[in-house]
Amino acid sequence: MEPGITKIWTRPEVRASVGKLIVESLGVDEPSVTAEAQLIADLGAESIDFLDLSFKCQQTFGVDLPMRLIQERRIAWRDLSVLARVLESRYRVSVEAEELRLVSPPTVDAVLEHLAAKRGISRAPDDGREVVTTLVSCMLDDLAGTPLDLSGLEVDRLAAYLEKNLHSPEAAQVVMSRLTVRAIDDYIAGKLAAAGRLAPEGPAA
Amino acid sequence: MSDTTPRSVLVTGGGRGIGRAIALRFAEAGARVFVNFFVNREAAEKTAHDVEVRGGVPHLLQADLKEPAEIKRLVAEIKTCAGQLDVVVSNAASGVLRDGLDLSPKQWDWVMATNTRALLTLAQEASRIMSSGGRIIALSSLGSRRVIPGYAAIGVSKAASSRRRASPSTPSRPGRWRRTSGKRCPTARPRSRRFARARRAEPW
Questions:
Q1: Hey, which end of chain B has fewer CB within 10 Å, N or C?
Q2: In angstroms, what separates the C-alpha of B39 from chain A's closest C-alpha?
Q3: Which helix (H) or strand (E) holds B179?
């Protein structure tokens, strides 16, 4: 019932198995599954594929691939719940995400203007930029522990997109472009290592 | 549930939501509850724990119900563990929220295999080990009768499952069909709001 739960894996075995599971789950050709291939943009993965992939990872490695966490986080961004949290803490006002979603256009400036008019918050000239920066850092914090490789992410580009449009599809793409074959491979290997089920690397061949 | 004999119950998709509530209710009656889940192990483990706390005997079974071989394995494991089944609650469902014109064949097949074929395969397999008077209960949905935006595949899959009741089991199999319908007992789930929001977004 718990396959893969006791096996000690080598690094090359993990890499090969992750590639195989991606081929099976996404129905793509093996040569397209390169280390840097992005699951969504390059391999056309969608939500149902991630369910399959998560299941197969649990069955094969005994390791959960928490794709649903990424999905939940993204729903919270789209909801503007994360923005509501940022504004509450910055301006000490109670803000409902529903209220923010009614603001048009969906920009930080318009939201701050709305709060100034309705709640009497006082704004400094650079507030918009600072709110977006905090928003981005909260969003990225929320993604820690998921299979996304966020190292070296272009935070400024992300902030620029969100400043113009809180629902920016480009911003979502920047984040999801970090879901690569290598990121999943590294995630699984990291979890196996933490559980003491990854064989130490031998001398370089 | 006044009978004091412990019942053996399978709840598919029993880790969370309505399936979890059903599993816990059976637990309160002292049943042996097989909690099937697909990917959310954390939620399923919590449900198994709560089943035990409420007086039931929990068993966790991970399976991908859109694969007939997985259903066979699931039922075989139950047979090994408990010998027989008294109640099957076919609750697990998955979906792709899209209008019909936007659905891909893959998405359609996924929903039909998970929500509709799984019930058939499950009934075929489970009936082999069901006790006399055992029950197979399938959950339906408001979407099986009404037009709900984005429910092109899910609604059809649920309507098909509801219709399955019209083909009862043969006399040689003791299990019987019983359908529940959201029509009579709609649920107010925060999830439906989440779905509505998710639908507005990009495919993934």
A1: N
A2: 5
A3: strand B176-180
Does residue B184 belong to the interface with chain A, where contact is any CB pair within 8 Å?
Answer: no
Q: What is the pLDDT of residues A141-154, one digit of tens each?
A: 999 889 999 998 88
Check if the interface score ipTM surpasses 0.90: no
The CATH classification of domain B8-199, taken from the options 3.40.50.720, 3.10.180.10, 3.40.50.920, 3.30.70.1170: 3.40.50.720
**B contact test, residue of A55, A69, A71, A167 with most B CBs within 10 A:** A55
Comparing C-alpha atoms, which of B200, B171, B63 is closest to residue B122?
B63
Chain B interface includes A61 (CB < 8 A)? no
CA–CA dist A83, A112 (Å, integer): 11
For B161-185, what is the mean pLDDT?
Answer: 51
Give the predicted TM-score (pTM) of the model.
Answer: 0.84
Inspect the interface and report whether the beta carbons of A58 and B39 lie closer than 8 Å: yes
Residue B127: pLDDT band (50, 70, 90) is very high
Give SS3 for B86.
strand
Angle, nearest 10°, between helix axes A47-61 and B105-112? 60
> How far, CA to CA in Å, does B72 sit from each of A144, A192, B63, B89, B123?
38, 30, 10, 16, 11
User: Which of 77-106 (B) contact A at CB < 8 A?
Assistant: 77, 94, 96, 106
Task: Judge whether B183 counts as a catalytic residue.
Answer: no
Nearest to A75 among B110, B198, B202 (CB): B198
Domain extents in chain B? 8-199
Domain spans of chain A, in order of start: 11-66+180-194, 71-176
Q: Tokens for B195, please give them.
A: 């779905």
Cα of B95 to nearest chain A Cα, Å: 8
Domain A11-66+180-194: CATH class, spelled out: mainly alpha
CB B27 within 8 A of CB B2: no
Catalytic option among B66, B79, B106, B158? B158
Whole-number average pLDDT of chain B:
83
A72 touches chain B (CB under 8 A): no
In eight-state DSSP terms, residue B38 is S
Q: What is the pLDDT of residues B43-78, one digit of tens each?
A: 999 999 999 999 999 999 999 999 999 999 999 999
